[in-house]
Write a structure and sequence with these properties.
Length: 291
């Protein structure tokens, strides 16, 4: 499969918009002791900064932060190499304490290692990670274990594909299944196609349903718990739409669910039948960088 076929026009427009945002954001950075300089190459990643309360947000237009250590500012970056540039500010008192924490999004293993080797205290990397997409466990998890960086996952329920809604459905037959009516569903359907196709995905859903029924929970609950139990994973983001799909009960059930050895083995057996997405697509975030 052509890697570019995994990217919808929406994703391509999104990448272009992120590049424009990068130019606008980096132009606003002033009087910062340590700045990340990213060489301009056809690679797209994100960097996040957690900033203190009542401090000007570096690279942003906000002037007040309601709580310390809770606001993440992120901008897209295009990089292959990372150059750490130290600047001396004419007003050091304005710089002190401004940057609390650096977090990353969609950095692959190679570039995560580069930024760590340059002494940047990264606390987490936000990556796509699901039972279908196990790429973070193949290379990045080992680096994270060695360095203490935590993984925050997204796409863990694949925009809703990993749910009862799509169990026993035939998307190849017009109007025979739920519509893929969001960019997220369309994106993760392409991931399913790259991994092993809809038939194998149905086998995965059936396996997850058996595990879910055994524990009295839903398929999404099992899917998220399985990923939370993986090496270096500290948290998972589940997108909600207030009044439409809040997932409160499913989310609460994650914390009491314990998957036993039989559960894990049955899920792993199906997962391993799929293609190696690291070979098909590349490392974490490569599907965006190749746009």
């Amino acid at each position: 499969m052509d890697d570019k076929s995994l990217l919808s026009p929406f994703s391509q427009r999104y990448s272009q918009a992120k590049c424009r945002l990068q130019e606008q954001t980096l132009s606003r950075i002033e009087s910062v002791e340590t700045v990340l300089n990213f060489h301009t190459l056809p690679r797209v990643n994100n960097a996040c900064l957690a900033v203190d309360r009542k401090k000007e947000v570096v690279g942003g237009g906000h002037r007040s932060i309601p709580r310390p250590f809770r606001t993440l500012l992120k901008w897209p970056t295009e990089l292959l190499d990372v150059e750490i540039t130290t600047r001396r500010s004419s007003h050091p008192e304005q710089v002190a304490g401004k940057i609390r924490t650096v977090a990353l999004t969609n950095f692959d293993t190679e570039r995560l290692q580069i930024i760590l080797e340059n002494g940047i205290p990264v606390v987490s990397n936000q990556v796509q990670h699901s039972i279908v997409d196990m790429r973070p466990q193949q290379k990045m998890a080992e680096l994270c274990q060695l360095t203490g960086v935590k993984l925050i996952t997204y796409g863990t329920v694949m925009g809703g594909l990993l749910s009862e809604k799509f169990l026993d459905t035939h998307l190849s037959i017009p109007f025979a299944g739920p519509p893929l009516n969001t960019p997220s569903l369309q994106k993760y359907k392409r991931m399913v196609d790259a991994w092993g196709g809809w038939s194998l995905f149905q086998t995965l859903l059936q396996t997850l349903k058996k595990v879910a029924s055994k524990h009295g929970v839903s398929i999404p609950t099992v899917a998220v718990k399985y990923i939370l139990d993986q090496t270096a994973v500290a948290g998972s983001m589940v997108v909600v739409r207030l009044g439409l799909s809040e997932h409160i009960q499913d989310t609460n059930a994650i914390f009491s669910l314990v998957l036993d050895e039989e559960d894990v083995s049955s899920i792993l057996e199906v997962s391993r039948r799929g293609k190696d997405l690291l070979r098909v697509i590349g490392d974490c975030g490569d599907e965006y960088r190749r746009a």
